[in-house]
Specification:
Layout: E1 2-14, E2 17-28, E3 31-36, E4 47-51, E5 55-59, E6 61-66, H1 82-93, H2 98-114, E7 117-124, H3 139-147, E8 150-157, H4 164-179, E9 186-192, H5 200-213, E10 217-221, H6 225-234, H7 240-247, E11 254-258, H8 264-272, E12 276-279, H9 281-286, H10 294-299, E13 304-306, H11 319-334, H12 342-348, H13 351-356, E14 374-378, H14 390-397, E15 403-408, E16 411-415, E17 418-419, H15 424-437
Parallel strand pairs: 1-4, 1-5, 6-7, 7-8, 8-9, 10-11, 11-12, 12-13
Antiparallel strand pairs: 1-2, 2-3, 5-14, 14-15, 15-16, 16-17
Helix pairs in contact: 2-3, 2-15, 5-7, 11-12, 11-14, 12-14
The structure holds zinc ion (ZN).
Length: 442
């Protein structure tokens, strides 16, 4: 099936900035075909035509750090310090079944698609001991497969290289990865959970697996002051970033989530190893963890991308809200209005997310040959009028509700506000049931 978005406006790259151009956009199969002057494209019989009048077509957003199965934890463990929060969440996590994770993941995906996210990087931690679903297909990969979204999935790993848990997690995860080997919308990353939960030998083991299988990794690094202090106390004064560097994990391409507590030397190390940093401003603020030093990261030349983190620590999977916060809070935190601008923030959520995933030019950009992951926004809403600066409008005025149609891998998954691949009524009912069963309602 081919698509033609007729007579529309495209958000195109212009060096490392953006420009808007009136055009027709042709999609052939899973890729962007041609960009033609408006009303010039001819539709063949197998082409579906979408009216692009008063729409802005832009690359689908890339959520570079989340935990989609945590959809259930929305508005559950609020206003707690980080480690208290973690403890409260883990008590419920241990009782979730694989089926619970499936429905919770679909809930997060529904919210992501509705608010313009077409790709996400995920780390899932749920236990499978109480799993109601058997076989190699994991709950999260099943939800991704069913929903039509694109995802980069990692099974969270904790502990030591050779303990029973690691053996079990590897034995579950490797067949899951094999099962989706040919799925064009699912890729797997290695997922060492965090510096405080992974022993050095586990990081080394995962590095070896990554080198052998040519895989990337994603890990939480330096999210809180406690993590930073405990690391120095227990490991001869080193920082969380240095701990990961010493393990060799940075020999793989890595997306490091958070990096709130980092020294100037840490930034140099991250840059030297081409580590991309997924900042999560709303989660960091909500858990009282502070702010990543965004200005210094950009000065150091680090590839910054943007994540929501799970709904347990953010309460939403809306990347437009996250862009808005990223565009504002660091200016306040660093008392510098020029610390970051709207163009920077839009790149974090598009092309720089793609770069972090080694998909530069394939995702997060509109150009012939790129994968057709696109969103169509309604321009006739008060928050976009007057149309003075489209990039400022997307970062400072949009709230995500402007997203009307979503295309992933050349397939329409949401059309004019209606999700075609997810039965939302059923997802909502299931999630309410699960939350009641697990005693999560206050
Ligand atoms: Zn996280």
């Amino acid at each position: 099936m081919n698509l033609l978005i007729r007579n529309t406006r495209l958000l195109l790259p212009d060096g490392d900035r953006f420009r808007v151009e009136e055009a027709d956009l042709v999609i052939r199969g899973d890729r962007i075909g041609q960009i033609l002057p408006p009303k010039e494209a001819k539709a063949s019989d197998d082409t579906r035509i979408l009216d692009g009048e008063r729409r802005l077509v832009m690359p689908g957003l890339i959520n570079a750090h989340t935990h989609a199965y945590m959809g259930l934890f929305r508005n559950y463990a609020d206003d707690l310090e980080f480690f208290q929060w973690l403890e409260k969440v883990q008590l419920v996590e241990d009782r979730m079944t694989l089926e619970d994770s499936y429905w919770a993941t679909l809930l997060s995906i529904a919210e992501m698609l509705r608010t313009g996210t077409t790709s996400f990087v995920d780390m899932y931690m749920h236990s499978t001991k109480t799993g109601a679903v058997s076989g190699p297909e994991g709950a999260v990969s099943a939800a991704v497969n069913d929903s039509g979204i694109r995802a980069f999935l990692s099974r969270g790993m904790v502990g030591e290289a050779c303990d029973d848990g690691t053996r079990r997690r590897l034995s579950e995860w490797l067949p899951e990865m094999e099962l989706h080997r040919d799925n064009p919308r699912i890729r797997f990353l290695l997922g060492p959970h965090a510096t405080y939960s992974c022993m050095p030998d586990l990081l080394k083991r995962l590095r070896d697996i990554g080198l052998e299988r040519q895989m990337m990794a994603t890990i939480h690094i330096a999210e809180s002051e406690t993590e930073f202090r405990n690391m120095a106390r227990d490991h001869d004064g080193i920082t969380p970033v240095q701990y990961v560097e010493q393990s060799g994990l940075f020999d793989l391409p890595v997306i490091a989530a958070h990096c709130v507590q980092v020294t100037q030397e840490d930034l140099r190390i991250l840059k030297e190893h081409n580590v991309s940093v997924a900042i999560n401003p709303r989660s960091n603020m909500k858990l009282g963890n502070g702010f990543a030093p965004l200005g210094r990261m950009l000065e150091a030349g680090i590839n910054v991308c943007l994540g929501t983190d799970g709904s347990g620590s953010n309460n939403t999977q809306n990347l437009f809200q996250e862009m808005n916060f990223a565009g504002l809070v660091y200016k306040g935190a660093e008392k510098k209005a020029r610390c970051v601008d709207a163009e920077d923030v839009l790149r974090f959520a598009t092309s720089q997310g793609a770069k972090a995933l080694q998909m530069e030019g394939e995702l997060g950009v509109i150009r012939p040959g790129a994968l057709a992951d696109l969103i169509l926004l309604d321009l006739d809403v008060p928050q976009f009028i007057p149309a003075n600066n489209p990039v400022s409008a997307l970062v400072y005025s949009a709230n995500g509700s402007e997203v009307r149609t979503v295309i992933v891998n050349g397939q329409i998954v949401m059309e004019e506000g209606r999700l075609l691949t997810i039965d939302e009524k059923e997802v909502f009912a299931r999630c309410e049931e699960i939350s009641s069963r697990l005693g999560m309602k206050s």
